[in-house]
Amino acid sequence: MRGRNQKASMVVAALAATLGVSACQSNAPTEDQMSRTTLETAPAELQLMCANAAAAQSGTESSKVLPVSSRKVDSNNYVVDLNANGKPMSCNVDATGTTVSVNPA
Amino acid sequence: MTDRRKLLKTGALLFGVSLLAALPAVAQTQVYDPKTRKWGNYDKTEAYKYWRKNKQVPPAFRRQVVRFRTAEQPGTIIIDGNQHFLYLVQPNQTAIRYGIGVGREGFGWAGIVRVGRVAEWPTWTPPAEMVARDPKAAKWAGGQPGGPDNPLGARALYLYEGDHDTIYRIHGTPEPWTMGLNVSSGCIRMVNDDIIDLHSRIQVGAKVIVLMQGAALYKGV
Q1: Do B29 and A32 touch (CB under 8 A)?
Q2: Residue A100: is its pLDDT beyond 70?
Q3: Which ranges in B100-178 belong to alpha helices (H)?
Q4: In total, how many domains does chain B have?
Q5: pTM for this entry
């Protein structure tokens, strides 16, 4: 009986600790992240990484490849549409900057 | 009401709804309020209220050094028109980020251009199309001298494509509260302190990449 009570109090303590930690945690963005738009485009650096990858793959001069639109696919991935010297291309890039694929659109 | 009238009324309503559905979604800027811990829409009215209260723009639109992974050379200017940021690439995968105001609906553009020339307290001469549509601009058809009320603000970087002036500029403004908004006729506007800072750091000839979703492409790309 005594052991059962001890177990129960340990569970309660663990739950309380978890709740305590949760209460102290905040989902507030850092100051540099305190703006957004309802249009969820890819960050500029990821769009340009895609442009570089597309330039290398298509043999197009990098100054002729421009990202023209982008969208969030999920929490970790974006699709970037590109204009490569007039030809449409599409690129998948993840949030770490790894270009997953580059293809003609 | 007769059946015919009812039909016409219903038809007009449906037509209106279908028109609304056909309109493109306009991106809305939102700003996080650390006090309420909520995101709120940030339009011209909210922006002006914020400026009057704080005498500065919200934290995200203030000048700051950020991490920026890129193969572009230091000194390159990258403009993210959708998120309202201008990045000046620095060494070691960093950039100085500034808040900007950009072209309103129908006036956005994207492309790869360069800084063709720069000016301090520039004269503003509105283009002929602006003179035709805006009576305020018509007043200055012959050129408005530089000064605190001049729409180009403290400095202007004139954007060229090859040897041709694109008519677009990166410039200061007498309306500093408009950072984060789509308000201009296609120019990129910055708080005067920021354009003075940017002007002091860049070279004529610097590459400028303008990203703007759904905007017309500037020729040459």
Answers
A1: no
A2: yes
A3: 128-133, 135-138
A4: 1
A5: 0.82
- Between CA B45 and CA B183 the distance in angstroms is 12
The pLDDT, as a whole number, for residue A44 is 97
Residue B121 forms part of a structural domain: yes
A74 to chain B, closest Cα gap in Å: 19
Interface test with A, best of B82, B87, B94, B208 (most A CBs within 10 A): B82
Residue B142 lies in a domain: yes
| Complex-level ipTM beyond the 0.85 threshold | no
B180: CATH: 2.40.440.10
Alpha helices in chain A (DSSP H): 2-24, 44-58
Distance CA(B202)–CA(B197), nearest Å, equals: 9
B39 inside domain: yes
Q: Is residue B37 part of a domain?
A: yes
Ranges of residues in chain B with a pLDDT under 70 are 1-26, 218-221
Q: What is the mean pLDDT of chain A?
A: 83
| Beta bridge partner(s), residue B210 | B79, B111
Phi-psi map region of B153: left, alpha, beta (phi>0 left; psi -120 to 50 alpha): left
Q: What pLDDT sits at residue B221? A: 44
β-pair type (A65-74, A77-84) = antiparallel
